[in-house]
Amino acid sequence: MKLACQEGMVPGNTLEEKLENLGRYGYDAIEFGGRGLPERVQAISEALSESAVKASTVCGGFGGCLLDPAKAERDRAVADIKALLSAAADIGAVGVIVVPVFGPPRLPDLSPYKTAVEIERELLVAVLDPLGAHAASVGTLLLLEPLNRYETHLLRRLGDAAAVCSRLGNPNIKLMADFFHMSIEERDVAAAIRACGQWLAHVHLADSNRLLPGFGHTDFVAGFRALRDVGFSGYMALECGVPGAPEVELPLCADRLRQMIEAATA
């Protein structure tokens, strides 16, 4: 298991400074936001070529919505995600993190034919299929992210996203697990990871209060043990608040996480 951190959390006036700091803090990779990423590919590639820190993933940043009733909004999301998938491949990232819809359903309830959620599930498979094909063609992954009930109604547990992955059967469509969202939605975080491990390709780290690991009550050792059991060896990226000076807290967090990983794999 390798440690990463989102770009916006890292001190530094330039990407080069951020990469240098991350390396000194003990991190293996950096996660980029997707907004404006295609225009940054050359600059990012040049900076990464001079650093031991790699690109882990690309987080969101697309317009439109995959499950909007307006075709123009769906098409916009598909086009943006394709561009992000290509950019992710160009910078050597594992994949692009995608949330299909935020908030309540946007589609109408057509009961007794089908509910809005039933229609969403069918539509999601239809729109993800060509995106998975594009991910395969460029050599990266589309990563479905379940959120908690306060942020979405659809994919809220790992099993929800795993069911979509299983139905599509495309090895370039995987899921990611976020410890903060799991702390709200999963009855047993470790059990959820073990049940869905075959589709798991990325992890977000945040404690139960959405601060750095160690500032809440999440049992990361149990979760990391489950990740070990399913053979996960990918990146785990910080996506959380920093309660203090980042130049102090980020190195401490890296040390703390490596101790947790060691305890989980002993």
What descriptive keywords fit this protein?
globular, alpha/beta, single chain, 8-stranded parallel β-barrel, 266 residues, TIM Barrel
In short:
The chain is α/β, with parallel strands linked by helices. 45% of the residues lie in helices and 15% in strands.
Topology:
Layout (H helix, E strand, L loop, with lengths): L1 E5 L8 H11 L3 E5 L7 H9 L4 E6 L11 H20 L4 E4 L17 H23 L2 E4 L13 H11 L4 E6 H7 L3 H8 L3 E6 L14 H10 L5 E4 L7 H20 L1
Parallel strand pairs: 1-2, 1-8, 2-3, 3-4, 4-5, 5-6, 6-7, 7-8
Helix pairs in contact: 1-9, 3-4, 7-8, 8-9
Give your account of this protein's structure.
The chain is an alpha/beta fold and about 270 residues long. It has a single domain, classed as TIM Barrel (Alpha-Beta Barrel). Helix content is about 45%, strand content about 15%. Strands 1-2-3-4-5-6-7-8 form an eight-stranded parallel barrel, surrounded by five helices. The model has no long low-confidence stretch (mean pLDDT about 95).
CATH homologous superfamily label? Divalent-metal-dependent TIM barrel enzymes
Characterize the biggest β-sheet. 8 strands, parallel, barrel
CATH class: Alpha Beta
- CATH domain fold name: TIM Barrel
The chain-level mean pLDDT equals 97
So how many helices? Answer: 9
Provide the low-confidence segments as ranges. Answer: none
Give the termini distance in whole angstroms: 14 Å
How many β-strand stretches?
Answer: 8
Tell me the count of domains.
1
Instruction: Return the CATH architecture.
Output: Alpha-Beta Barrel
Radius of gyration: 18 Å
Strand order across the largest sheet: 1-2-3-4-5-6-7-8
Helix content: 40-55%
